[in-house]
Amino acid sequence: MSPKDVLHVSDLRMEFGGLVAVDGISFMVHPQEIFAIIGPNGAGKTTVFNCVSGFYKPTSGHVSFAGESITGLPSHQVARRGIVRTFQNIRLFKSMTVLENLLVAQHRQVNNNFLSGLFSLPRYRRYEREALDRAMFWLEQLGLGEFANREAGTLAYGHQRRVEIARCMITEPRLLLLDEPAAGLNPQEKLELQHLIDRLRRENHVAVLLIEHDMRLVMDVSDRILVMEYGRPIATDTPKRIQQDERVIKAYLGED
Amino acid sequence: MSHYQNAGQGNIFADSIKHALIAAILTVLMLMPIFALHIEPPRPPETALSLSYEWSFLLYGAAAVFCFQLIRPFLSKGLSGLPRFTTPELTPRHQQLALCLLLLGAFAVLAFGDRAQISIGQLAMIYVILALGLNIVVGFAGLLNLGYAGFYAIGGYTYAVLNIHYGLGFWQSLPIAVVLAAITGLVLGFPVLRLRGDYLAIVTLGFGEIIRLVARNIDFLGGPGGLNGVSKPSVFGYEMALRPSQEGVQTFHQIMGWKFQTIHMQYYLYILGIFFAVCAVLVAIRVSRMPIGRALEAMREDEIACRSLGLNPTALKLIAFTLGAGFAGVAGALFAAKQGSVSPEAFTFLESVLILVAVVVGGMGSLLGVIVGGILIAVLVTTGTGFAEYRMLYFGAILVIMMIWRPQGLLPVGRRQVKVKA
Amino acid sequence: MTDFLSQFFQQLINGLSIGAIYALIAIGYTMVYGIVGMINFAHGEIYMIGAYVGLVVLTAFGAASGLPVPVILGSALLISAAVTGLYGYAVEQVAYKPLRGAPRLVPLISALGVSVFLQNYVALGQGAYDLAVPDILSGTWSFSLGGQFDVTFSYSRMLIIAVTVILMVALTMFIKHSRLGQACRACSQDMSMANLLGIDTNRVISFTFMLGAVLAAVGGVLVGQSTGKINPFIGFIIGMKAFTAAVLGGIGSIPGAMLGGFVLGLVETFAQGYWSSEYKDVISFGLLILVLLFLPTGLLGKSSMEKV
């Protein structure tokens, strides 16, 4: 593999007690690339996500990130290396404010500053100030500034999705995993999301791995697409060619 | 329309009488072998057991259950119409005010209390520290630690051993006691914190018991009788006593030119208790506002989301667990100083339950709540001889009732949220 | 060599009989866990109540009554099982049923409260002291393996093993073939699905608690015959051990609880016999911790993956 790939997944296989959920999945994500995984429900897309982000330990196969193997690493270590994700069913800290959601994500202070925090030393206060500023910066970036003080659970669905992305971005990831980010959004919001993903890639230099059912969004925003069915890969190619691929049309697009 | 309603009500009434009757009969059956048929142990030279009979309990019990079951349907219907009893949601500002008032109250006891009240005060401060410590584990981190008395024991035994076997004083022993309790927390926590919540509860219970059983069986720790003759803390290095225990050294009172009375030692221990309790409150407040406090809250809400952001749940829990153990270390050393002795029986599982009751009644996660809970426990444990006999019965029932009726405790305090100014 | 063999057999018999008791109680833990997903902390106390009810019956129908031994023992077992079953039912109704769907910590604390309450409730009613259980089934069967001492097999131990084995066979048949047993299995697979299919889940849950209590009561009556004394606090330690057995076997699995009970009984007896009896409870708690740490899914349990 070439070291310039951000993510390299090879021959991934995941079994759940005899049931094969994912088999023979290989792909790589280049820097600043937007790479989408599509496929019918139950095709194993989220399982691939869970293997990449460390929530599942793959039965076999390899996952490496920036040239280093991360196969089987616990999820929090994967995240610390620069892969963060969102969830199909939004997982915000609902009773905390939006601002606090973003503060929690800046965890590196948790361990470093225990004593200075206990005595509220200037060093600690500076860190807190900076964390707040960063949080506000990202909220403004995503147009969420006015909601900073609201409890996250009280926000509209579309805004919650954005908070989740902001919470990821504040950790300064190199690879962002978005699990059906457009689900439940209206057409206007979908368009905004599309611009947002594109902007994050251009301005913040993240690569994006995307699971999405909305074909329009996927085709417009992705650089390349992996199509899965029954846990197996069907094709990996650019949106244009995927749309013309016989197997894909038969297996997936043709069903509409 | 009204016809139907009447028929319905008639049925409900007949049904509830039937239910109440069944419940009463079952109650009689359950109570009979425990309360009505009392097994008399044989009086020597006899060897056989015999039964004595006491029927009144059955009658009361059955009547109570019958009445309760009878009015229950109406009760729940009637009550649902009424506004439910709630204490107003307390904000962090209320909490600050209440804490100041409590501190004033503590000094009022110092100024006006007699020897017995001072003694209760000392115990109250110890329980406040324990409750605050357990609250970090149960309330902040959401981990049920049922072996908390074990860490309390380590604090107490550390001071007792260092004092009796090595001649160290309170102030020298205290940091060692705290560190040792915390390290034990760290070492025990490391393997167990990956376990599920209910397993964790039982493993900690097991650890707590092991610590006590080991203390019972080691002569160095005094065996079942424990260690006696632990000395009292000094004041800035000067002994507080009528006469110095060594030649050529002055006591605190000689320096100050005061006349020594034994109650002065009690005052001093109480002041120390207040001091450490205030420290514990301050630390707990800081922890709740620091990133670790936020992270723990986030972890209680959604551990998976935390992991996806790079937070290590095990490490977070470990910090909380260790911190809680450290609090227990302080409380243990204070307890040994107050009693002048430690014994395995002071640190049983029931002690862990008592501390848990303080936390649960006050409100898991609420500083004000657990402080009040701690004080309440100390008062209940020391006063009322009639109460003492049944107190564990009550405490058990309180845990159940609180969980059903008010799992958030009597004095829940909303967390102070971080906000930006508009 | 023959001495070693005799000793070994003796330990085996002792271990099996105490293991049988653990197995009986462990089934209660495991069934409740399988269906409601909670650890019934108070189960050890249910066992203790079973022992007390049994002793009340034994005292009432005591040796002086002149009734034949099987009648006395049989009625003690039956009455104790019935009354203790009621306790199992009542505990579930009062302390757990209102808490379904609450956060995990909540029923756990409630269960702890029930446990503390029941201990002191019995202490209040019957006194917080040891009571000697009359030895109804005295007598032993000894045999020699050729060594210096004989292997003794008391009738009470035989009874424990026999009754346990019979109950386990009956329970297995019941769970496999009866309607209620099938409903139990359905509920432990998927409670809400079972509910949708018209199974009265409340009834199944009540039944599970009662069944667990009945088995624990049998254990309580029998162990009184074997150890000779009871007090209101015996439930705590035995409850812990039976819980260990349930985890060891794989919590949620009924055959696992049976296996775990026997394995634990044997390990404990041999550890005490060949090592130290002073640290008896330390060994038990240590074993509990080791099992939970290193074998949390147990011998026959399935590991489950958390859903993300």
From TrEMBL, chain A:
<keyword id="KW-0029">Amino-acid transport</keyword>
<comment type="similarity">
    <text>Belongs to the ABC transporter superfamily.</text>
</comment>
<dbReference type="InterPro" id="IPR003593">
    <property type="entry name" value="AAA+_ATPase"/>
</dbReference>
<dbReference type="Pfam" id="PF00005">
    <property type="entry name" value="ABC_tran"/>
</dbReference>
<dbReference type="InterPro" id="IPR027417">
    <property type="entry name" value="P-loop_NTPase"/>
</dbReference>
<keyword id="KW-0813">Transport</keyword>
<feature type="domain" description="ABC transporter">
    <location>
        <begin position="7"/>
        <end position="255"/>
    </location>
</feature>
<dbReference type="InterPro" id="IPR032823">
    <property type="entry name" value="BCA_ABC_TP_C"/>
</dbReference>
<dbReference type="Pfam" id="PF12399">
    <property type="entry name" value="BCA_ABC_TP_C"/>
</dbReference>
<dbReference type="GO" id="GO:0005524">
    <property type="term" value="F:ATP binding"/>
</dbReference>
<dbReference type="InterPro" id="IPR051120">
    <property type="entry name" value="ABC_AA/LPS_Transport"/>
</dbReference>
<keyword id="KW-0547">Nucleotide-binding</keyword>
<protein>
    <submittedName>
        <fullName>High-affinity branched-chain amino acid ABC transporter ATP-binding protein LivG</fullName>
    </submittedName>
</protein>
<keyword id="KW-0067">ATP-binding</keyword>
<dbReference type="InterPro" id="IPR003439">
    <property type="entry name" value="ABC_transporter-like_ATP-bd"/>
</dbReference>
UniProtKB/TrEMBL annotation, chain B:
<dbReference type="InterPro" id="IPR021807">
    <property type="entry name" value="LivHM_N"/>
</dbReference>
<feature type="transmembrane region" description="Helical">
    <location>
        <begin position="125"/>
        <end position="154"/>
    </location>
</feature>
<keyword id="KW-1133">Transmembrane helix</keyword>
<keyword id="KW-0472">Membrane</keyword>
<feature type="transmembrane region" description="Helical">
    <location>
        <begin position="318"/>
        <end position="337"/>
    </location>
</feature>
<feature type="transmembrane region" description="Helical">
    <location>
        <begin position="95"/>
        <end position="113"/>
    </location>
</feature>
<feature type="transmembrane region" description="Helical">
    <location>
        <begin position="174"/>
        <end position="193"/>
    </location>
</feature>
<feature type="transmembrane region" description="Helical">
    <location>
        <begin position="392"/>
        <end position="411"/>
    </location>
</feature>
<feature type="transmembrane region" description="Helical">
    <location>
        <begin position="20"/>
        <end position="37"/>
    </location>
</feature>
<feature type="transmembrane region" description="Helical">
    <location>
        <begin position="57"/>
        <end position="75"/>
    </location>
</feature>
<dbReference type="Pfam" id="PF11862">
    <property type="entry name" value="DUF3382"/>
</dbReference>
<dbReference type="InterPro" id="IPR001851">
    <property type="entry name" value="ABC_transp_permease"/>
</dbReference>
<feature type="transmembrane region" description="Helical">
    <location>
        <begin position="267"/>
        <end position="287"/>
    </location>
</feature>
<feature type="domain" description="High-affinity branched-chain amino acid transport system permease LivHM N-terminal">
    <location>
        <begin position="16"/>
        <end position="106"/>
    </location>
</feature>
<keyword id="KW-1003">Cell membrane</keyword>
Automatic annotation (TrEMBL), chain C:
<keyword id="KW-0997">Cell inner membrane</keyword>
<protein>
    <submittedName>
        <fullName>High-affinity branched-chain amino acid ABC transporter permease LivH</fullName>
    </submittedName>
</protein>
<keyword id="KW-0812">Transmembrane</keyword>
<feature type="transmembrane region" description="Helical">
    <location>
        <begin position="12"/>
        <end position="34"/>
    </location>
</feature>
<feature type="transmembrane region" description="Helical">
    <location>
        <begin position="71"/>
        <end position="90"/>
    </location>
</feature>
<keyword id="KW-0813">Transport</keyword>
<dbReference type="InterPro" id="IPR052157">
    <property type="entry name" value="BCAA_transport_permease"/>
</dbReference>
<feature type="transmembrane region" description="Helical">
    <location>
        <begin position="155"/>
        <end position="175"/>
    </location>
</feature>
<keyword id="KW-0029">Amino-acid transport</keyword>
<keyword id="KW-1133">Transmembrane helix</keyword>
<feature type="transmembrane region" description="Helical">
    <location>
        <begin position="282"/>
        <end position="301"/>
    </location>
</feature>
<keyword id="KW-0472">Membrane</keyword>
<feature type="transmembrane region" description="Helical">
    <location>
        <begin position="46"/>
        <end position="65"/>
    </location>
</feature>
<comment type="similarity">
    <text>Belongs to the binding-protein-dependent transport system permease family. LivHM subfamily.</text>
</comment>
<dbReference type="InterPro" id="IPR001851">
    <property type="entry name" value="ABC_transp_permease"/>
</dbReference>
